[in-house]
Design a protein that fits this description.
Neuraminidase, 24 strands, 11% helix, mainly beta, four-stranded antiparallel beta sheet, single chain
Length: 315
């Protein structure tokens, strides 16, 4: 009796051992396949006049500055997608055309995502099922387009804006935190102004109406505020607007160019780029509290830093 059952018991033990080894091996492989941050970081682009732009990262106090990309092409507009663990970014080409790529937090696994956007900004929706960008696909003007991500397929939806009917050009899209609205810049009424449009195109609202030019809309995490840049390109300031009341506050009013304001995920901080001087061509990254107080310079680089985005670990 013992002699006939022993081989079966031994085989069962071997089977259990193999299954256990496979389980832990696959678990470790799954954990290692996506490089994710374990603390907050800031990613941004930094451009050399003759060598193009590269993407860097640093801690929110400005330490551990690290170059992430190394390419002959311009890496611009880094966008963090926390659910999937990708950093999307734009690579600019000739005639202002560009392609959207993505990579892991540590700069690995760089791959092409979409070819055919323009070098005027893009954004990934909070659910990471949509990507908005400016493009001229099949049209004469520049409009806001949306890509729908379905499994491994990308579906190009009809444009949200209509430059043929409305005139002007539209660019620099930014999704609201609930994913229902897109803020963008348009010249359809003359100078650059900030507009809102539903992601299905059903409603459109003009937010700003000034004699200045407005750029770079960015939402606060609670959807209450939109920051933007206003002024002429050589001398711009940063404002925030209450979306409900359209009350506007000046946050940064220095000489020089202040631009690319964006928010930390907890809403406590705003990071932005500033040349801090009318004669300076080199921007640096700063941070401040969301009310404009406690401004602190984070970088001191020999390239022009801009387009900062705050990365936080997935919770």
């Amino acid at each position: 009796m013992f002699g006939t059952s022993f081989p079966f018991a031994k085989l069962l033990m071997i089977f259990v051992f193999i299954c256990t080894v496979l389980y832990f091996t696959l678990r470790v492989m799954g954990e290692k396949q996506i490089a994710r941050p374990n603390q907050d970081w800031i990613v941004f682009a930094c451009a050399q006049p003759t060598e193009g732009a590269e993407i860097y990262r640093m801690l929110p106090d400005g330490s551990q500055l690290t170059q992430v990309t190394r390419s002959d092409e311009n890496g611009l507009y880094p966008q963090w997608a926390p659910k999937s663990g990708w950093i999307f970014f734009l690579v600019s080409h000739e005639n202002s055309r560009g392609s959207i790529r993505r990579m892991r937090f540590d700069g690995t696994d760089i791959e092409d995502f979409w070819e055919g956007s323009w070098s005027d900004g893009f954004d990934v929706s909070p659910n990471e099922n949509l990507v908005a960008f400016s493009g001229v696909t099949g049209r004469t003007g520049e409009d806001i387009y949306i890509l729908e991500i379905k499994d491994d397929d990308l579906v190009l939806l009809p444009p949200l804006t209509d430059s043929i009917t409305d005139g002007g050009r539209s660019w620099s899209p930014a999704f609201s935190p609930d994913g229902e609205w897109i803020a963008y810049v348009s010249t359809q009424d003359g100078n650059n102004e900030i507009y809102l449009i539903k992601t299905d195109g059903s409603e459109k609202v003009r937010l700003t109406s000034t004699n200045e030019n407005e750029y770079n809309p960015a939402w606060s995490p609670d959807g209450k505020w939109i920051t933007f840049t206003s002024g002429e390109l050589a001398d711009t300031d940063i404002f925030r607007m209450n979306v409900s009341t359209q009350e506007t506050q000046l946050l940064v009013g220095w000489r020089g160019t202040q631009a690319w304001a964006s928010w930390s995920p907890d809403g406590e901080w705003i990071i932005f780029a500033s040349s801090d001087d009318l004669n300076s061509e080199l921007g640096q990254i700063y941070k401040m509290h969301s009310d404009g107080s406690n401004v602190e310079q984070l970088t001191n680089m020999n390239c022009s830093a801009g387009q900062p985005q705050w990365i936080a670990p997935k919770t």
